[in-house]
Amino acid sequence: MLSACPAPTPFADANPWSLAESLDGWQRFLQSEPLNRLPELAVGEAAITVQEDAGSASVLAPILDTLHGFTGSWLLGMLLAGGSSTLVMWAFSEVVTVPSAPNCSNLPDDPLIRDQVTCWQTAITTGDTQARQQGLTEVGNWLPTNPLFGEGQDLLDQWSRAVLREAQQAEAAGDWIIGISLVAQVPHSSPHFYEARTQLARLQNHQQAQAQALNETAQAALQSADWATAYQSLEQLQALDHVAAPLDLPDQLARQISAERRAVRLWNDARWQWQAGTVPDQASAIAIAHQIDPNTYRWQTVQPQVDRWQNELLLAQTRWSQDDQSAAIASIQTTAEAPVRSPQGRDWRSLARVRPFATVKPQPQFARDLP
């Protein structure tokens, strides 16, 4: 309960104020001069005592009557009212105050979502395509529970339309890989995702047609050992490859070039070994030649020569066996992995395989019977 508040006691030594008699209490208070001293207040069970003259009492009376409704005393009510108003004003200022722009050049490792989006937008307006790609990736992964999900969908719509427009320009200019890299940026949560998939399929058709033409050029170069053209085609194929539209041809061509170059080295070694002239050297030359990958163009070219070498070697081994059959058999074992096409060669191959297990030395007549 609020205690009764007696009328204030006027100041004994205060000077009377000259105010118009027609003004009421509040008006006279607002138009009065500042008090020359603070009123002496006593807060307690006794009522507030204000020593003031009769004129001052009539001025302060409306104020005291108004504050009399506060709890405890009018001074406490004034303090509460002042604190509440300060709190309200602070909260209001927080609501209406526009937050400061983030420092996009020095964002923390874990920035606020709003600050990150603001920095993306700022960078994109300056033409930063990397910021747009990052924004599409990050915003495209937002879940519907994200507080900015609705705004994110608007951003995806805006950014995706810009990307697809640039992809169409690249397609018109024949830059298939640029177009593919652009449409691949559109995330699955974008409103334009299916439109991007359709455009990607069209770009892939152009990409594969160009890749096939480059591969045909490379194949012709490999047949003639034109390594410069083959490697140039390989580089163009690799540049045409993209993770969103992968190609098998670059890896296949790289392996094929490696196999063809190895075939050339082996064939050069085999020819040098053959020119040594001895039967063991010629047998070694044939063995080296048969290390060439049979799927290479080089093997298709040298295979007839290797067959002629083998027939010549068989004749040399036949003549040599009349003098040193063991050496002849040893030379045949050197070419054990080489295919044999003549009946005489197959006989010598069989003899070479069973020779280590023989307990009786083969008769020279066997060698003389061979043609």
Describe the structure.
By secondary structure, the protein is an all-alpha fold. It has 3 domains: 25-96, no CATH class; 112-201, no CATH class; 265-369, no CATH class. The chain is built from 15 helices and no strands. Helix 9 (227-240) runs antiparallel to helix 10 and helix 13 packs across helix 14 (343-354). The radius of gyration is 51 Å and the shape is elongated.
- Based on CA atoms alone, the radius of gyration comes out at 51 Å
Order of helices and strands: HHHHHHHHHHHHHHH
Net shape: elongated
Low-confidence stretches: 1-5, 8-23, 35-54, 70-75, 366-371
| Fraction in helix | 55-70%
Q: Pairing-aware structural class of the strands and helices?
A: mainly alpha
- SS elements, strand count: 0
Biggest beta sheet summary:
none
Between the first and last Cα atoms, what is the distance in angstroms?
140 Å
Number of discrete helical segments: 15
Name the beta content range.
under 5%
What average pLDDT do the residues reach? 75
Provide the number of structural domains: 3
List keywords for this structure.
single chain; 371 residues; mainly alpha; 3 domains; 15 helices; 64% helix; elongated; disordered N terminus; disordered C terminus
Task: Give a short synopsis of this structure.
The chain is mainly alpha-helical and 371 residues long. Helix content is 64%, strand content 0%.
